[in-house]
Amino acid sequence: MxxxxxxxxxxxxxxxxxxxxxDVSAAxxxxxxxxxxxxxGGKSTLLRVLNGLVPHFHGGRIAGAAVVSGMxxxxxxxxxxxxxxxxxxxxxELQTVYDSVExxxxxxxxxxxxxxxxxxxxxxxxxxxAGVEHLAGRRVSTLSGGERQRVxxxxxxxMRPRVLVLDEPTSQLDPAxxxxxxxxxxxxxxxxxxxxxxxxxxxxxxxxxxxxxxVDRGSVTxxxxxxWSSPPAPIKPPRRHAPAGEAWSLSDVSVGFAERAxxxxxxxxxxxxxxxxxxxxxxxxxxxxxxVIAGGLTPLAGRxxxxxxxxxxxxxxxxxxxxxxxxxxxxxxxLERSHETESPDxxxxxxxxxxVAGHYPRDLSCGERQRAALAAVLPGAPRLVLLDxxxxxxxxxxxxxxxLLVARLRDEGSSIVLATHDSSLICALADRVLHVSDGAxxxxxxxxxxx
Length: 451
Description:
This protein is globular. Helix 4 (101-111) packs parallel to helix 6 (145-158) and helix 9 packs parallel to helix 11. The protein has a 6-stranded mixed beta sheet with strand order 6-7-8-3-9-10, sandwiched between helices. The protein has a 6-stranded mixed beta sheet with strand order 15-16-17-13-18-19, with helices on both faces. It is built from 13 helices and 19 strands. The chain is an alpha/beta fold. Strand 1 (2-12) and strand 2 (21-29) form a beta hairpin.
C-alpha cells in the first residue's frame, strides 16, 4: 500500500507563469525511493510536497491531490505533517536552530512535547544512526558543512518518522560519511520505513531502490531501477600549457580556533596554471586551508604569500554571496569591481545560466544557485581561484560545464585550489592531490582518491 500518493498534481510558485510540477501522478511505497533528474527540474519541489512546505510555506497555486501517511497535504498544517515526515534540506544551514549539537537534535522532540526523560536515548540513537556520535558536545558553529549535514540528518531521525525525506544528503559529505548516510537510509528502508532520497550520486542507491522517479521540467516519470545506467565518465580537457611560476605559498603555517588546532606547521605552494585538489574527511581542515590561502583567516604562526591579482573564492554556503536582484546583476558587479571588460554572457553561457540570468538568485534550485555563485565569482580573469565543494548539488551536465570553465581559467594562468569529495572532478582536473586531516597536509597520488 502506498504511503504517499500524488494525483494529477500541478504546482506554481508565486508569480510564476509556468508550473514547477505539472500533472504529476505517482505512488511512493515503503522502502527506498530514489528521485533523480537534472538541476532545476523540480526534484526539491516534489520532495517539499511530501511534508507540506509546498504549498503551505512557499505559497503559490496548487491543483490535484497529495496524500501522505493518510493526511491530505493541502488540508493538513505542516506542523502536523512533521510528526510523520522527517525532512533534511540540501542546505543544512537552513535547518539549524541551536548552537549545541545535542540541543539541535532535540529541537524537534521539544516541539512534539516528548517527555524530557526520554530525550537522551532518542538523541544518542539518532547521533549513532547518522554516524556523528563523536560530535556530541560540539558547537554547531564549529562544524564543517558536511558535519552540519549529518547533524541535520540526526535531527530528522530523532523524530522516528514514518517517512524520511533526504534532499541531496551526501552533497557535502566525504566518502566515509556518504557511505554511512546511504547505509542508514537503506537500512531504514529495509526495516519498513518509506525513505525518499534525491541524489546525483546514484551508484550506491539505485541497486537498493524499490523505485526511481525521474523529475525533468516538472514532469515525473517512474523508472525501473534495473533499467538505470551510470552516467558517462567526466570529460578531461587537455592542458595547453605547463604550470608556471609560484602563485602563492604557506611557510610553516599553523591555524586554529579557541577549541582546537586545525592545521599545524603546513608548508606548501601552488603555481600559476596549476589545479590542486584538497581531499580529506569532513572537519579535517580543507575549508580552513582555503581561507588561509585566501587571506580570510590569519594564521597563528607562519607566513602566507600571494602574488598580486584578484582572488575568486567560493565558500561552502554559496547563497551567502548572492544579494543582487538578478543573477546578471551579480556577474556585472564582479566585472565592474575588477575593472574587466568581459561580457557577462560569457560565463552565463559557460555555466548554462542564460535562461535564468534575470531571476533572483536565491529563488533558484540548489544546483542552479551553486552555478550562480560560481558565475558571480569567476567571470573575467581571477589570478587565484579557491572553490569549496564546487559541484555540490550539480548534475552531470553542470559538472562538465564547470570542468571546462576551470580548465579555461587554468590555461589562462589562474592558480586553482578545489576542496572536494567529487572523485570525478579530481580525475578530470587535478595536477596534484593534497589530503587534509589530523592537522596535516599530505601529498596523495590520484590513484588513491576515494579510497
